[in-house]
Structures are given as structure tokens and as C-alpha cells.
Design a protein that fits this description.
Helices cover 70% and strands 0% of the residues. It is mainly α and 167 residues long. It has one domain. The two termini are 27 Å apart. InterPro entries: DUF1761. Keywords: Membrane, Transmembrane, Transmembrane helix.
Length: 167
Amino acid sequence: MSLHYLPAVKPSAIALGTIFNHTAELAVLSPLFGTAWQRAKVSSTKEEFARSREAAGAAVAWGTALVGSALQAYGVGALINATGTLSYRGAAYLGGLIFAATSAPSFLGQWLVEKRAWEQVGLNVLAKLVETVGLSLVLTWWGTRTNPFEHSGIGGTPLSRSPFRSE
């Protein structure tokens, strides 16, 4: 596979989306970091804390959340570019579709099958809505196209210009 098949997304949009998403993700991971902070206060030395299970878990969670945030920012930016989304309304719809496709089924399972508390599921839903709908709105506001004059609406969206269609 060649990299030119992947849609181009402005690097500053990926960076902004990563920061936005990582901040939202850290809000969800804050109980894990709270446990690590408590362990750090109890530890007698820095080395003892660095070798602790809490520190390792917090570092892994932070690193994977950062990489996941960057990948999600690129993916949403690429979808915005590929669909030719130019309005906030379109971005909100796109973010809602991403949420429905990726997160809604697991939340329904948590609530109906696992019988988790509605408050817990509701907070997780809110965090994922920020990560999907919020991210798509922020990226639309910032701009994701490397060439802003590309896909200006003349001739349809990029998806309507398929090499397999005869025009």
C-alpha cells in the first residue's frame, strides 16, 4: 500500500485535534492518575514510585491515549476532507455518525446488559460525544485541508468524483 492513498490532513489540524482529544481522554482517565498520585505521595523515594505498578499503568495509559488521540484526529480530519464537509452542521452530523458507529453499541451494552449505573454510562457517553462530535467541530473550525481551495464544492464532493464512474 502506498501512502498517497491516505487523504492529506493539515499537520496543525492533527496537532490541535490530538491536544483536544487527549484532554478529553485524560478527563476520563483521571481516576487512574489519582491512584498513581496517591502512590507517589506514599512512596519514600522517586525510584520506588517509578517501579510501582500504578506508575507503570499511568504511563502506559497516558502513552496509548496520546497515540490514540493522534490517530483519531487524523481519521476524523481525513473523513472531513474525503466527504467534503465544509459546515459546522455537516461536521456535527459526521461526528454523530462516528459516535453511532464506534461507541453507541458498547454504551447500550453497558447499560442494558452489564446493568451499569446510568450516571456512569452517561458520563462515558458525554466524554465520547466530546471526542467525536466536538473533535469534528474543532477540526472544521480550524481547517483540515492542506490546500484550502481544493474541493471548494465545484464538481461535487471528492467521493462523487470516483475513477470508476464514467462522467
